Amino acid sequence: MKTLFERLAARMQKLSPPDLESMVRGFLIQYFFHISDRQRIEVVGEGRKSINLLTPTQFKGHGRIVLSNTAVFGVPRSPGHHGCSYIESRTPTSLIQIGAGTVFNNRAFILSEGASVTFGERVLVGPELHVADSNSHQLDVPNRAKPDDNPRPVVIGDDVFIGSRVTVLKGVRIGRGCIVSAGAVVTSNFVAPDYSVVAGNPARIVGRVPGAPEETSSPATQELAA
């Protein structure tokens, strides 16, 4: 084993910094995908049935993970590109679904724990997203070590832009075309109508996306209003 590492180190010293960086990132992508629960992944869409992993990404859990074959995970020339995104559909009834053309920057955390987390099409996500359909634990003190017994679906509509370091909690619904500003903490059961601008901690609606249609009604907001 020592000889193997010595040979590897000698080879690495001969590489240019860009080539070495690319090699290390490629190794990490392969490693984290190899130890993932790959049998839970369903790739949908026309053409090839492969996943676009540009930075390390791990998939875990006992539920379903449904990915469009045009979704992208990772941005190599962005902070955290050697860090690992973590996507877990934890329980047998959990679901994570990601639509066509959706792109995640680095170090995303997505957790479904019995309800669902759904991203629409063409969603753009900044680095260090945190989104979950549960609190992971019950909140009352005697039961705090137990799993959340009331997970609620998270729905993020088509064409949403999510800035860096955004937290999205259970029951949240973000309508079509919205902007969620960097650092926002979108608290449980918050609803953003189509083309809203969302910002703050706790998040609130602070405006409307420039040039948005006058009247819109996405499936996410229709369902909530029913």
Automatic annotation (TrEMBL):
Task: List the InterPro entries.
Answer: Hexapep, Hexapeptide_acetyltransf, Trimer_LpxA-like_sf
Q: Does the keyword Transport apply?
A: no
Q: According to the lineage, what is the superkingdom?
A: Bacteria
Identify the EC number(s).
Answer: 2.3.1.-
According to UniProt, the name of this protein is Acyltransferase
Q: What's the family?
A: Belongs to the transferase hexapeptide repeat family.
Q: Keywords for this entry? A: Acyltransferase, Transferase
The cross-references to PANTHER family, in alphabetical order and at most eight, read: ACETYLTRANSFERASE C18B11.09C-RELATED, SIALIC ACID SYNTHASE-RELATED
Q: Which Pfam families match?
A: Hexapep_2
Report the top EC class in one word. Answer: transferase
A GO MF term: acyltransferase activity
